[in-house]
Amino acid sequence: MEDAKRQTLARIVRAGAEEMLPRQLALLEQICAIDSGTGNEAGNAAVTGLLEPVLSELGARTERVTEPGLGTHLVARVRPEQPRGKVLLAAHLDTVFGPGFAEKHPFHIEGEWAHGLGAGDCKSGVLISLFGALILKKAGLLPPWELTYLFTCDEETGSRSGRKVYAREAQDATLALVFEGGRERDGRPRFVTSRRGVILGTVDVAGREAHAGKAY
Length: 216
Prior knowledge:
Helix content: 25-40%
Number of helices: 5
Structural class: alpha/beta
Order of helices and strands: HHEEEHEEHEHEEE
Low-confidence stretches: none
CATH topology: Aminopeptidase
Number of strands: 9
Distance between the termini: 73 Å
Number of domains: 1
Shape: globular
Largest sheet: 5 strands, mixed
CATH architecture: 3-Layer(aba) Sandwich
Radius of gyration: 21 Å
């Protein structure tokens, strides 16, 4: 019986995804055509403006956390009357590209691949998180959890401003999902569940130069 339910759910979601795909790609093309490098406040505002109709369709309550010189972190909540938990869905709106790059590298589709500045990192992830919930809502299948979207504007420069919003929203979250670009393994697409990272710094040492083995 459980297998039958899963198969039915998979059919519903697949049909919804196929129905939404043209709209999703059209919106991806729009937001990839906007220069939204970290600190491009006008570009960030234009991208968030294009997302708000989808958030409104989801019934989300939207909060803007504005950071002068960077842009706006967008926090949006889809909250049932009695949520059984909270899922944090995180992605970022900024890219590493400067002004004029979007025009030089226009959005285009080749076969099954969509190409555009920021498409994989991570404007497509933003749309996957939104349209995935919209598909479930239209099918009456949204889970009884609060969905909290957190779209930040400074991830590419270390989230120095965004981290305080992450800390605020993550502390009472049951689960967090990050919609960065996925990876293919064994011929199948995979969801990213962990990341490696590096931190760079300077260590100041005071004392006499020595060698632990022979020059004490």
